[in-house]
Amino acid sequence: MKRMKWFPLIFTLFILSSCIGPYTSTTSAIFIIDKGHSADYEEYWIKAYDPNNQEEYEAMKIIVKERMAWNLIEVNKEYFSTYSKKGENPWILVNIQHFELD
């Protein structure tokens, strides 16, 4: 009988946790093809693709939370970056470093 009391609670928690969606994080080289911002300058973004695994037409939009980082990112340059995504939300830039070949 005690097990029956816990079943609805556990079942509800299971359903709620599955609705949040997966968390995905990717680290790769990216090539920047465009960058921009919203009309009110509240959101900054870059369009980039992984030159090792994707074609330019597969470029994704990545939100850049830090305006100072966005200012330093240059179009037509390659960077090493980490970007993440939770569920169906857009990609968010976590880390970016200039990628140089010697």
From TrEMBL:
Q: What keywords are assigned to this protein?
A: Signal
Top-level taxon of the source organism: Bacteria
Signal sequence, renumbered to the chain: 1-20
Tell me the protein's name: Uncharacterized protein
Q: From which source organism is this entry?
A: Mangrovibacillus cuniculi
Question: Which classification does the entry list for the species?
Answer: Bacteria, Bacillati, Bacillota, Bacilli, Bacillales
